[in-house]
Design goal:
The complex is a heterodimer of chains A (about 160) and B (about 140). Chain A is an all-alpha fold. In chain A, helix 2 packs across helix 4. Chain B has about 140 residues and is mainly alpha-helical. In chain B, helix 2 packs across helix 3 and helix 5 packs across helix 6. The longest helix of chain B is centred in the first third of the chain and has 22 residues. Classes of the chains: A mainly alpha (about 160), B mainly alpha (about 140).
Chain lengths: ~160, ~140
Amino acid sequence: MAGQNASTVKLPLDLRDLVAFVAGGLFGAGLLVSGMIDTRKVQGWLDFFGDWDPTLAFVLGGAVLPMTFVWRIAERRCVSLLGTPIPDRSPAKLDRALVTGSLMFGAGWGLVGLCPGPALASFAIGGWGGALFLLAMVSGMVLAPMVAGWLSSRTTS
Amino acid sequence: MIEQDWIWGAVGGLMIGGAAAIYLLVNGRIMGASGILGGLVDGTGRSTIMERLAFLFGALAVPPLLVPLYDRVDTQITTNPVIIIVAGLLVGIGTRLANGCTSGHGVCGISRFAPRGLASTGLYLLGGAITVLVFRHPLEVI
């Protein structure tokens, strides 16, 4: 174990990519198993004043609970197993972009019942509607920097 | 009484949390679907392009493999193209402005007790609940 500083050891890029593929696959599979690719179930969760469906609370709880422990481990380690830094905490700044963006996202989520993860995971089985949603969502992501610029120009004027 | 759907929800949730744990502990990255995709779309994630593509390929390609084992696979998405386009644009613009969605701000943010994640989650739930309230009940368009 002599010599070299561990942080200078560069692991092959393909291991990182393989792990990303495994994580993406597990994420997509979890979205399918949990029923979150079913737009009616998601809209049912948001329908607090109608026929409310609590399934999404179990999904979120199932995902958040193990992650509270994982975050503690990660923040104590400071670096990942592949040597990259654990992302810093963002400053607790609630700006206009966060508020406007979150409300816009919520409105779109409620209208169709798809958020970005399930839109990807259901692509192969979502028919033309799912494909059209994904296309519109990617277009929105292209337009987002312009909207952000417009929002900040309104703030300063 | 616990319903079948809730158990599947919790099992799927654990899988989603497991995926976020792997991505964080091994790769040192926050698993946020809108960030991973958005960084490719607007070019801000150029330095991690292969990692992003690999994640997205997994998320796109693995669920269809499970479909034969599984009976609940209908997305039941609306057939109104105007609603789909408007909603897709709102989700795309909104998640990039807010810098996160249900996976990044929701799963990863809440579990870190991150103020921005908690605030964003409260706001998109509010936005979604108001939208369903208005467009489902009086207007009956969704």
